[in-house]
Amino acid sequence: GRGWQQLPRKCASMRFRPCIDIHAGQVKQIVGGTLKDDSESLVTNFEAAQPSSYFAARYAEDGLTGGHVIMLGSSPENREAAMSALRAYPGGLQVGGGIKIDNAMEFLDAGASHVIVTSHVFHDGAVDYARLQALVAAVGRARLVLDLSCRRVPGEGSPTYKVVTDRWQNWTDLEVCAATLADLASHCDEFLVHGVDVEGLQSGIEEPLVEILASSPIPVTYAGGVRSFEDLELVNRLGMGRVDATIGSALDLFGGALPYTEVIVWHQQQQQQQ
Asked: What is the dihedral of CA 193, 199, 203, 206, to 10 degrees?
């Protein structure tokens, strides 16, 4: 569709968005599709020796904004590691994972710029607009990010994607498409979208999904499968400069081959071209 042309975004230079994923109180990189209720099935790509605050301080030092801290599970260890990251970079990180209306303010008060919400605003496979509106009333639209992480619907024809919730195990009926993005954009400040099928695999990006995300009238961050500068350029081109990207397992910070310092240089070059 061409709907995005009616909604020009002020910022059309793509940004690199950093991440801190926390599992069992430690910074890790996992294979997205393997996160289940039991930890036996979890496939881990990387476990950091450093605490979450180390990464947060590094991002602060490098002037990276709009990154996210994700708690994979609601343990006290994860909560403390998330709080530690927020204290190390007040106002510089978004936080997600088990965020509900009754704990959202706690994380904002601790220094999160935004809270990222998924499962809480879905009920029986659909958006629960009453819950969403209550959340907006409680924290303010400007501090809310909706996580529309999704999987490709099996089948032939042009790829379609539907939102998955609850550790990415449960399918919803909500399709990630231009109409959905336009509808939900009035309730939040940004979207975060993991391509769950490719998350953590370093196998390349979900190209059709990035093209869909380019229609978003508000900032959107794509995560999943980015492994090279070619992939970053592909997101930039398919997303028309409107879709930001997160890199996880492929970064040398997290045991991968892509040099973080070179990604920073690439990111700075994008900003200068604006």
From this structure: -20
Secondary structure in 3-state letters for the chain? CCHHHHCCCCCCCCCEECEEEEECCEEEEECHHHCCCCHHHCCEEEECCCCHHHHHHHHHHCCCCCEEEEECCCCHHHHHHHHHHHHHCCCCEEEECCCCCCCHHHHHHCCCCEEEECHHHEECCEECHHHHHHHHHHHCHHHEEEECCEEECCCCCCCCEEEEECCCCEEEEEECCHHHHHHHHHHCCEEEEEECCCCCCCCCCCHHHHHHHCCCCCCEEEECCCCCHHHHHHHHHHCCCCEEEECCCCEHHHCCCECHHHHHHHHHHHHHCC
Give the pLDDT of residue 273: 83
**CA 15 – CA 248 distance, rounded (Å):** 15
How many C-beta atoms surround the C-beta of residue 223 within 10 A?
27
Q: What is the C-alpha separation between 113 and 60, in angstroms, rounded?
A: 13
Write out the two tokens for 15: 């940004």
Encode pLDDT of 87-143 as tens digits: 999 999 999 999 999 999 999 999 999 999 989 998 889 999 999 999 999 999 999
> Both tokens of residue 258?
């892509």
Cβ neighbours of 56 (radius 10 Å): 26
Identity of the amino acid at 114? H
Farthest CA pair distance, the chain: 48
